[in-house]
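Anyone? Bumping this.
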Amino acid sequence: MVGVDVGGTETKAVLLDASGEVLAQRRGATPPRASDTAQRVLDLTCSLVGELAEHAAPVAVGLVVPGIVDETRGVAVLSANLGWSDVPFAPLLGARLGLPVAFGHDVRAGALAEHRSGAARGAADAVFLPVGTGVSAAHVRSGQVHSGGGYAGEVGQVPVEVRGQRVRLEAVASAGAIGQRYRERTGNPVAGAADVARLVEGGDPAAAEVWDEAVEALGHALIWLTALLAPEVVVVGGGLSQAGPLLFDPLARRLAADWSLASAPEVVPAELGDRAGSLGAALLAADLLEHRNPVINRTEER
Amino acid sequence: MVGVDVGGTETKAVLLDASGEVLAQRRGATPPRASDTAQRVLDLTCSLVGELAEHAAPVAVGLVVPGIVDETRGVAVLSANLGWSDVPFAPLLGARLGLPVAFGHDVRAGALAEHRSGAARGAADAVFLPVGTGVSAAHVRSGQVHSGGGYAGEVGQVPVEVRGQRVRLEAVASAGAIGQRYRERTGNPVAGAADVARLVEGGDPAAAEVWDEAVEALGHALIWLTALLAPEVVVVGGGLSQAGPLLFDPLARRLAADWSLASAPEVVPAELGDRAGSLGAALLAADLLEHRNPVINRTEER
């Protein structure tokens, strides 16, 4: 089984044996946004699959991409960052490879992987909340991820109020936004959220302010998903999940202060790191061969 | 089939034939909060079932109550308003009636009823958002309501910021809160939200202020549930849903202003009114006989 995860900058591919063990992996630079990005993503995917096939011939391939994905039709509906719309990746890649192809969404695939073999292992239901270049969420229930026609989980788009202004959650709380907001406020050219985290720990007040605003905004998402879904576990992934107690302590305090019901979930860091998407893609491929459908979309419910 | 819905003040019972047609209905006053409320609710339920049985002998009974309900164990975990905790209603009522008893949650049962035969008919997924004495939500997906161990949907408990203060959503946006906040602000002894709605239409500025704050708070819930779940339809129920355009127009404007993705749900009034819970209770009973489980809880997922 091969799983391929097309990220905003990097594409990761992983080869698993039948028992789910990782045999090999490859990475490549995701083609930049252009008129032929989808074609070049297909080329890159075929090339990575070819390299991995030298270790062991895959019996199926899973491909996952960001943006709006309709799993039922196997179509990438929209990616603002990669600049495509309505690309039927599943049939296109299947024809190129001559193999069964499962096609899905990077975050929902990551949620599946964290649920089957990561931080949400054993939980009856869980929410995966990756905080990286964007912020999104995926709800796993009865082993299936909710897709909502491809649109479920776009919490990064919710307007929140910060410093008296209404901005989208991910313009405050994504790892990218944290670095950018600190640069804008101080002129200090930090590389990203990890630098800001170090500055917070070193006592930099501007860093603490930017960080607190991000955590406050993520706290809104945490409270609302707890109220609506009452998951047992919330798995925070993406780059920001590596911040440790600087992130998880205030989130836990927020839940304790603002959520009085007995349903407060555990909030834990992801275990699979940036491989969650590619491992999840391989799970989609394995499930395809076993005629299991790990994603609940709308079309098939009709 | 009989369905019984224990409300905060009134208990409603409905008798359905095998095709789902309503043959008869009865109502009774819910016993007040006391040490023996649960016992007296059982007495009342048996009495209502007995009256309805004069029309046609029921083959099963569904009972739904408010608060925290664990459908799998058939237990009412907690009701702050009715003052009980850990009452095993399903076996207690089953023993009293000598009939199969399905036990559930009033809002989740109402969601089922609106999905099968009300305003969410035909939708692949839907959220039921009753705004009455409290505010809660239930997500129906693939025909099943998500329970989250009994805790899913408690959106009324989410803190929101109103006039610079953090208060629970249902302390601002429930039908009860709207009446109370207007009384507190003006001294005008209105009976409830319907009176406030009339005052808004008559141009009363204090009423408009209270109303706008409620709608603003409900707008938060609407945006977050849209972002997390991307339902096709949001069915607003409870007393407030009778306010018509005064409620639905600003909610639609809020979605249009704050949600740019193509996933914005239709927001529509409930069709089954205050019978949604009892009709849903009867559906639970019918599903019990057919060995279908319309509620996804945690326990059975383990």
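Late reply, but here is one note on the structure posted above: The radius of gyration of chain A is 19 Å.
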